[in-house]
């Protein structure tokens, strides 16, 4: 018992110190999003490289190596709690990453992605993918080198996917997406003509900047969001990062009123997951939530399955009308039809709930085919446009509307896009179980009471932070493994019945 306790105390201390480096890195990313000057980038990159080296040196030190060696010998069943097991597993994995990935490669990746994001912004402004191709090519190859350093005998793309969504590989993910894409396409074909008749111009409604910001943050707070644990800023590409166990930084984009509301609900879902870890998860440095699809499930759940529910707008639409008299002539029924309209388009951000998953599936397939040697970076724009024509029946007007629209590849998030579609699948399965446990959850939302939904998410998911793997978390919360049918049933009910044109 004494040996176990002493070993775990050493483990906790190492992880706590590593969390300080993680927090510093998150702050530097935040600074990058928040308008770091062009001339300030070189020194910022230098500082980032310094912290990367320091974090690695701490992880590969003799003291850490000794602790890891003892952890590897310790019987897993003898840990006294899931938090101890998760902490031991996290330190072993972090140590292996630090040892296997050369320090120079880690620094090169950090410095290159910082530079590449600036080049991406320039290319985006000029809608010029050709100018960005050299940086995209180098970045994808850096990710390949990283994957091979981690797992020399595994497929690089499998490794990248597994790093984001533990337990998954390209083949399994592709099979899940085949079921999902087929089901979504079938629903889309059945509703496309009817939904084309829905007027959704109200969603383009705009008002003065400070008013829409005030409306948006008021709505977010009324949903039970803890404003003391977050701060809010505006960027081109909305994001959220957890700087500390109760410090979630939210960025959003108020390009119009309703886009701002949905964007903020989405990032707010990430923030809730970031700041809601219980004391044990915080003590063991497991705060912040499981990355990848599990985190996306919470943002997509609050954006769509809560924020685009009829009950949500039964409560909030009168408030929005009171703030924006121009909307009083548009009844709730017409507004809600607009919110739910299936309208395939070229952009992932702002895509309707039905067709959204097709966007990350396209990106996943391109990444998979690149690492399989089937396509080259020079072909990305053409293949992107072909896939959009095939899946969604639309073609981007230019690279800014198409292959350059996401910051993910520039920021090094290759092997991440599958998380968005998987997030929808997880969210639907959570929703199904939540309604079994709390059948009145949505009727309470119509009265402005979000406590049923929030409490279920906190108790079943948020409080555990990174204690479980995605598969374990899904099984623990819902009692079964991933089942794509829950999302397809939800979408069919919503788009074929609830949101059909009247």
Question: What features would you describe in this structure?
Answer:
It is built from 21 helices and 3 strands. It is mainly α and 502 residues long. The protein has a 3-stranded mixed beta sheet with strand order 1-3-2. α5 (103-126) runs antiparallel to α6 (129-150), α8 runs parallel beside α21 and α17 (418-437) packs across α21 (485-498).
List keywords for this structure.
21 helices; Neurolysin, domain 3; 502 residues; 2 domains; Methane Monooxygenase Hydroxylase, Chain G, domain 1; 3 strands; mainly alpha; globular
SSE arrangement:
Elements: H1 2-33, H2 41-59, H3 62-73, H4 82-100, H5 103-126, H6 129-150, H7 156-164, H8 170-196, H9 209-222, E1 230-234, E2 240-244, E3 247-252, H10 257-275, H11 279-283, H12 293-306, H13 310-323, H14 332-339, H15 358-371, H16 380-392, H17 418-437, H18 441-445, H19 451-460, H20 470-478, H21 485-498
Parallel strand pairs: 1-3
Antiparallel strand pairs: 2-3
Helix pairs in contact: 1-2, 1-3, 1-4, 2-5, 3-4, 5-6, 6-7, 8-15, 8-21, 9-10, 10-12, 12-17, 15-16, 15-17, 17-21
Helix content: 55-70%
Q: What is the C-alpha radius of gyration, as a whole number of Å?
A: 23 Å
Question: What is the CATH topology classification name of the largest domain?
Answer: Neurolysin, domain 3
Shape: globular
| Main beta sheet strand tally, sense and closure | 3 strands, mixed
Number of DSSP strands? 3
**Helix/strand order, N-terminal first:** HHHHHHHHHEEEHHHHHHHHHHHH
CATH arch. level architecture of the largest domain: Orthogonal Bundle
**Number of folding domains?**
2
């Amino acid at each position: 018992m004494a040996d176990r306790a002493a070993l775990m105390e050493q483990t906790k201390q190492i992880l706590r110190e590593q969390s300080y480096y993680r927090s510093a890195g998150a702050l530097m990313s935040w600074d990058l999003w928040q308008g770091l000057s062009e001339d300030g980038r070189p020194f910022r990159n230098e500082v980032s490289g310094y912290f990367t080296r320091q974090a690695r040196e701490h992880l590969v030190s003799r003291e850490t190596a000794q602790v890891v060696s003892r952890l590897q010998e310790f019987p897993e069943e003898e840990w006294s709690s899931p938090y101890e097991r998760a902490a031991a597993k996290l330190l072993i994995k972090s140590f292996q990453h630090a040892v296997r990935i050369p320090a120079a490669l880690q620094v090169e990746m950090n410095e290159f992605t910082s530079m590449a994001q600036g080049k991406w912004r320039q290319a985006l402004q000029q809608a010029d993918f050709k100018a960005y191709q050299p940086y995209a090519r180098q970045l994808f190859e850096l990710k390949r080198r990283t994957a091979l350093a981690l797992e020399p005998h595994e497929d690089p793309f499998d490794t990248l996917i597994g790093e984001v969504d533990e337990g998954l590989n390209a083949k399994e993910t592709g099979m899940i997406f085949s079921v999902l894409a087929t089901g979504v396409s079938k629903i889309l074909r059945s509703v496309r003509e009817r939904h084309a008749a829905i007027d959704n111009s109200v969603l383009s409604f705009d008002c003065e900047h400070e008013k829409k910001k005030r409306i948006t943050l008021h709505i977010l707070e009324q949903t039970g969001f803890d404003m003391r644990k977050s701060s809010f800023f505006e960027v081109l590409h909305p994001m959220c990062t957890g700087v500390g166990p109760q410090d979630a930084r939210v960025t959003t984009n108020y390009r119009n009123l309703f886009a701002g509301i949905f964007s903020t609900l989405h990032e707010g879902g990430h923030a809730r997951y970031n700041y809601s870890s219980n004391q044990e998860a915080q003590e063991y440095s497991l705060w912040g939530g499981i990355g990848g699809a599990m985190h996306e499930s919470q943002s997509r759940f609050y954006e769509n399955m809560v924020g685009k529910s009829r009950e949500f707008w039964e409560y909030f639409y009168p408030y929005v009308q009171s703030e924006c008299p121009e909307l009083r002539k548009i009844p709730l029924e017409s507004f809600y039809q607009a919110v739910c309209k299936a309208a395939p388009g070229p952009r992932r951000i702002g895509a309707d709930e039905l067709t959204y998953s097709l966007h990350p599936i396209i990106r996943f397939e391109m990444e998979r085919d690149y690492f399989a040697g089937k396509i080259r970076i020079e072909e990305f724009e053409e293949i992107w446009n072909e896939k959009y024509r095939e899946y969604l029946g639309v073609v981007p007007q230019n690279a800014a509307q198409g292959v350059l629209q996401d910051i993910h590849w520039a920021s090094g998030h290759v092997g991440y896009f599958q998380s968005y579609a998987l997030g929808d699948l997880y969210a639907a399965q959570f929703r199904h179980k939540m309604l079994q446990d709390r059948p009145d959850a949505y009727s309470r939302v119509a009265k402005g009471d979000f406590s049923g939904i929030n409490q279920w998410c906190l108790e079943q998911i948020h409080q555990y932070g990174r204690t479980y793997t995605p598969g374990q978390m899904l099984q623990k919360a819902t009692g079964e493994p991933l089942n794509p049918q829950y999302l397809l049933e939800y979408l069919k009910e919503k788009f074929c019945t609830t949101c059909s044109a009247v």
